[in-house]
From TrEMBL:
Its EC number is 2.1.1.177. The keyword Oxidoreductase does not apply. InterPro entries: Alpha/beta_knot_MTases, RlmH-like, tRNA_m1G_MTases_N. S-adenosyl-L-methionine binds at residues 76, 108, 127-132. It is an enzyme of class 2 (transferase). SUPFAM superfamilies: alpha/beta knot (SSF75217). The gene is rlmH. GO terms for biological process: methylation. It comes from the Bacteria. Gene3D superfamilies: 3.40.1280.10. This is Ribosomal RNA large subunit methyltransferase H.
Amino acid sequence: MKITILCVGKIKEKYFADAIAEYSKRLSRYCKLEIIEVTDEKTPDHASQTEVDQIKAKEGERLLKYTRDDAYKIVLAIQGRRMTSEKFSSYIEQLGVRGVSHIQFFIGGSLGLDDRIIQKADCALSFSDMTFPHQLMRVILLEQIYRGYRIQFGEPYHK
């Protein structure tokens, strides 16, 4: 299985970069992982809704360049579907059984994802009603993918 994480913004904090590198290394035995970062737009303080929409559209345009029609697309969104780690593991496994060989996960920037990306998604996934920094969401997503593979293969992993 190939897994691509498409995200807005660069990781600047060393502790996030270290965690991403660690989970990327761990995942290398289970899947082919690719992380694609697109440039985020600077958001002015007190941005109007028009400015917010324009920023999301520009970031969305950059993500669309990497969107593959043959990939199964999962967006991370607060309004998305919630799953336990076991259910997420089973979901990924079932996609493989159905013949899906490439999954693309989308993580928006500080303002979220452009509607065009959300509309192209096969699934919207939520980790919480809370809002997390997009840098931290990348780490959380990688950890859950790793945990999902460990569950899928019956390997021990802390609960």
